[in-house]
Amino acid sequence: MQNNVRRSGFTIIELLVTLALFSIIATTVTPSLGNFYKRNRVASIVNNHISAIQLARHTAVSENVFVVVCPSSDMQNCEDDWALSKIVFVDEDGDGSLDGNEEIIANIEMVNDYRVASTRDSLRFAPFNTAQNNTATITICPDEETTVFSRAIVISNVGRVRLEKDQAEIDCTD
Asked: Where in the numbering of this chain does the General secretion pathway GspH domain appear (predicted)?
């Protein structure tokens, strides 16, 4: 008498082929996911900085006041580390620092695991549609070994913002 019971399962050959295909797919997808993550993280940092700058410029012109954008760790004092969160405030007395009677328009949280540097300690926008600085550049560099995803935000002396993607123009050295 023969037993007609069918057994279900995988053979060792089927299992090895499946594991081989899975490992090939995993090794080809993993590096591109890392690049995708870096590129989107840099884009997020750039967008946060540009939105703070545009808010300051718009507020300065529309409300006829001086407005400052600067990095701050305590949301009260300006610092020079551009990887910190940013505060945007009305600078009524024109001294470039936040005083007790001056209004904070916005505070923007920033991711701070990438190198962010600026040629200026703070950005000051005037009510007559200019930046009170000469030109300023904010560079965002994900890491030291590659600058492929690095970006620079260039602010002209009239307060216009443009994004620089040309790696030859971006300085990621300390």
From this structure: 49-159
